[in-house]
Amino acid sequence: MPPTSATATAAAHAQAADRESRLAPEVVAALAATGLARHFVPRRWGGAEGTFTALLHEVAGVGEACTSAAWVGMLWAAHGRFAALLPEEGQRGLWGADPGVRISAALMPPAGRAEPAPDGWRLTGTWGCVSGVDSAEWVLVAAPVADDGETRVFAVPGAAVDVLDTWDATGLRGTGSHTAVVRDALVPHELSFPLAELMRGATTPDLPRCHTAPAQLAGGLMFCAPALGAARRALAVWSRWAASKAPGSGRPQYDSAAVRETLTVASAHIDAAGLLLERAAHRADTEPVTPALVTGNQRDAAVAAGLLADAVDRLFRTGGAHIRDASGELTRLWRDVHTVASHGVLRLEPVAAAYASTALAAADRASTASRSA
């Protein structure tokens, strides 16, 4: 995609983000200017009520500049979609003055504890891996309620959250996915909703599709979008090496059959992943929600993540020694894609179990109906 101010800024700071485990303030500002944080915010607050397809394209584009920036921007959008489940007054508290507020979240697994209080709940707890928390204006956390065990989502102002510097992962280092601590916050009723509502999707009539889709329908494809951009960038970086002259012989690197085969397979895997994610996004935007649609989208996202990881593996193994420098761009992209692919939402084993359950149940029903005819 053509470079924008945001992608140029993210690209210029990508190495520093990886080294310092945080996005630079300039990147946060440029990313905020893209409108990602208001992508799913209701229109009545000035948001876009956007589509999953548009988000896929935008996040993948940022991912070509900096995977960590794309991850944080994607989550700003996703968390705006979640916060749209708050009661009206809670939404006003978040977006009444600015539809582009930055929201971080830690929802799975739930942690901490919420004690009922006269005006809401007293919330205490510690939540790990909260991406972008150091620049968040609000944080969504999930916690069980002490009296009935119901798990609820609570919106807490960023100023009420302590951040512990705990993020030291192999990839996505610039996301600053540190630990969030809420020591004793009063969360009013209007700043909470049941986690179950997020998982099943809102049922209020006349809401836009982006606010009624259950979490698992589009979660995988959104999580995979930064890796799609990163893999495309990895292919571009590797291709420059492949077109260069080999030391000694002066012949192009692609004179090697192994290099040509790597280009062919890796590029096809990246394209195939993009097509799978495009289809999943289109279905999330338009098709009636059924268990088969949800698990089909989960399947496509998990398989796409595997294709992207395989592609960057091939590029990394075939590239020359200098292109695999520890501080080099291809190495960073390789680490980032594998970190994305290892996320629980994209793990193949649980996704395969869910997909097999719905697909084979449908096949069994069809077989039974055929025998009964």
What order do the helices and strands come in, and which of them pair?
Blueprint (H helix, E strand, L loop, with lengths): L4 H8 L1 H7 L4 H9 L18 H12 L3 H17 L4 H8 L7 E4 L6 E5 L2 E11 L7 E7 L6 E7 L4 E3 L13 E11 L3 E3 H6 L8 H4 L2 H28 L14 H30 L4 H28 L10 H13 L6 H25 L1
Parallel strand pairs: 1-4
Antiparallel strand pairs: 2-3, 3-7, 4-5, 5-8, 6-7
Helix pairs in contact: 1-3, 4-5, 4-9, 5-9, 9-10, 9-11, 9-12, 10-11, 11-12, 11-13
Give me a quick take on this structure:
The protein is of the alpha+beta class and 373 residues long.
Helix percentage range:
40-55%
Strand runs, count: 8
Unreliable parts: none
The helix/strand series, from N terminus to C terminus, equals HHHHHHEEEEEEEEHHHHHHH
**Shape verdict:** globular
Count of individual helical segments: 13
Strand content: 5-15%
Mean pLDDT: 93
Largest sheet at a glance? Answer: 4 strands, mixed
User: Structural class of the helices, strands and pairings?
Assistant: alpha+beta
What radius of gyration results from the CA coordinates? 22 Å
Distance N terminus to C terminus?
Answer: 54 Å
Q: Order of strands across the biggest sheet?
A: 1-4-5-8
